[in-house]
Amino acid sequence: MIWQQLPQFIVSGITSGSIYALIALGFCIIHNATGIVNFAQGEFVMLGGLTIISLNQTFHVPLLVAFPLTILFVMGIGALLEFGPIRHSKSKDILILVIITIGASIFIRGFSPMIWGKMARTLPPFSGDTPILVLNAAIMPQTLWILGISFVVLLCLHLFFLKTPTGRAMRAVADNRMGAALTGINVDKIVLLSFVFAAALGATAGVIITPITATSYDSGVMLGLKGFSGAVLGGYGNFAGAILGGLLLGVLESLGAGFISSEYKDAIAFLILLLVLFWKPSGLLGKGEIRKV
Amino acid sequence: MNRSLPTKKWKQLLSFLAIVLLVPRVLPSDYYFLILNIIALNAMVVLGLNLLIGFAGQISLGHAAFYGLGAYISGILATSYQVPLSLSIPVAVIATAFIAFLVGIPTLKLEGHYLVMATLGFNIIISIILVQWDSMTGGPSGLAGIPHLKLFSVVIDTDRKFYYLVWILVGIFFWLSLNLIDSRTGRALRAIGEDPVSACALGIPVEKYKVRVFVLSAVYAAIAGSLYAHYVTFISPKSFDFFYSIEVVTMVVVGGIGSLWSGLVGTAVLTTLPEILEIVKEYNVLVYGAVLMLVLVFFPEGLFPGIKALWKRRKN
Q1: Do residues B293 and A100 lie in contact, with contact meaning Cβ atoms separated by under 8 Å?
Q2: Were both Cys, which of A87, B190, B217, B303 would link to B48 (CB 3.0–4.6 Å)?
Q3: Which residues of A touch B110 (CB under 8 A)?
Q4: Quick one: DSSP state of residue A257?
Q5: Residue B126: closest CA among chain A residues belongs to which residue?
Q6: With contacts defined as CB-CB under 8 Å, which chain A residues touch B250?
Q7: Total structural domains in chain A?
Q8: To the nearest whole angstrom, how far is the Cα of A47 from the nearest Cα of chain B?
Q9: Complex ipTM over 0.85
Q10: Helices (H) and strands (E) in chain A, counts
Q11: Domains (ranges, CATH) in chain B?
Q12: Model confidence, pTM
C-alpha cells in the first residue's frame, strides 16, 4: 500500500525541506538588512557544492577541513557581491538592486563552467550509505547529517541573533534602519555582514545536499527558487517563517510526488503556495504591513 | 498639461514609421531581419509590461506564461484542429486574457515580494503543464509544423515580410499605449504606482485598474506569442519558462522604467546583446551578466535617459 510509504515521503520531504529552510534564511537575512530579494542566493548553494567537490575530490582535502574552507570561500563571494555592485549602485531603488543580483547570478553561472565544466558532479556521502530502518522508512546516513547540521546551524544563528552585540545590531537594522543608524550602528557593515551570512547559509546547504543530488553549474537556480518560495510561504523576512515555509514546501513536494504525480510535483507545490498566499497575503507567519496614508 | 503633446506624439510616430520603412533598404543581410523581428516581439511584451511595472508599479515575473499561452493555444488550434488562423489567434488572445483575469483578481491583491512570487509561481506551473501534457503540447520536444501567417492572399513566410507586419503592429500598439498613458486611465495608473493608498483615497478603484492593466499586458504578450508561433512555426516550452519573464522585466528596467520609448531601447539593446556577445564565445553568459550589472550600477535611471543625460552634459 502506498500509505505505508508515508513515513518515507515525510523523511525525504523534511530532508529537502531543511535545505530549503537554510536557503530561505539566507533570503530573509539579506531582505531584513536591505529590503531586496537576492536572486544570487541559489548561486551560493551551487558554489558551495562545486567548491567542496573540487577540494575533496581533486585536491583530496579531508571533508572536515574542506567544509569550513568552502564556507569561507563562498562567504568571500558574498562579500564581493555586496562590496562591489550592491554598494556602488548609484540607485538604492529595490527593483534596481534586485536586477543587479539577477545580473550577478547570471555572471556567476557564466563563470562557474570555466572552472568546473558543465557536467554534474557529486560527492560520496559523509559516512557511508547503509540505510537505517525506522518505521518503514529507510533513512540514509546523509539525511541525518543534513538534519543534524541544519539544526546546529539554526541553533548557532539563534544564539548569535539573541546574545551577541552584532546579532542585536542586525536585528535593530531589520527593525528600523534609520533608527539603528541613529543609535550609532554602522548600517553598511551590517549589510555586508548579511550578504556574508546569506552566502554561508547557501554554501552550507550546497555542501550537505551534494552527496544526495549531484551539483552542476546551473543547479542553483531551482534550489534558490525553492528557498525564495519557502521564505515567502512563511512570511518574507521572518526567520521562524522561513524555517516553517522551507520544511512545509519540502514535505508538500514530497507528498505531491508520492501520492499524486512525480511529473507535476513542482506544479503542486507552487499551486499550494499560491493558494496559501491568496488566503494569507503576507505568508503564514508574516505580520502584514500596516498601510500608511 | 502639456498642450503640444499630441503634435509631438504624431512627430514621434511618423519618425518611427519612417525608420521602419527605411531600415530594410540599408540592411546588408536577411539575418538582421530575424533579430529585428525578435526585437519587435519582445517589444510588444515589454510595452505591456511597462504599463504594468512602470506606471501601475506592479511587478510580474509571469509574463512568459502569457506569451507561451498565446503561442501554444493558437499553435495547437492551427495544427491539431486545423482551425484557420483568423480564428485561432483571436481565440488564443481572448483565452489568455480570460486566464489573466482569473489569475489577476487574487494575485494583484498581493504586494511587493509576494506579488513577484505569485506571478513566478504561476509561470512555473504553466511551464510544467507545457512540458508534461505532451499529448496536447508535444511535450519537451515541442510543437512543430505550425502554419505561417497569411494576410489576405500573401503568406508571411519570409523574415522580410514578417518584419513589415510585426513592426507595423508594434507601431499601432505603441500608439495605443501612448494614448492610454495620457488618458484618465493612464493618470489613474500612475497614481496607483505612486501610492495605492492615496490613489484609493482619491476615489480611484485601485483593484479594478490593477487587474485591467494586468489583463492588457497579458493581451500584448499573448498577441506577441501567437505571432511568434506562426513566425518560427516551431515552439518548445523552453522559450516560455520564467527566464524569459526575468528577461523582459530586465528590458523594462534597463531601458528606463516608466517611459515607453526607453522600454523600446532596453528591448533592442538586451535582445541584440547576446548576438553581439557571440564574438566572446564561451564567455558570453559571463559578459552578459557583467554588462547587466554595470549598466544598472551606473545608469539606474535606465540606459536611454542615462545616455541622454551624458549627451546633454557633453553639449554644455
Answers
A1: yes
A2: B217
A3: 277, 281
A4: I
A5: A267
A6: 99, 102
A7: 1
A8: 15
A9: yes
A10: 12, 2
A11: 26-315 (1.10.3470)
A12: 0.91
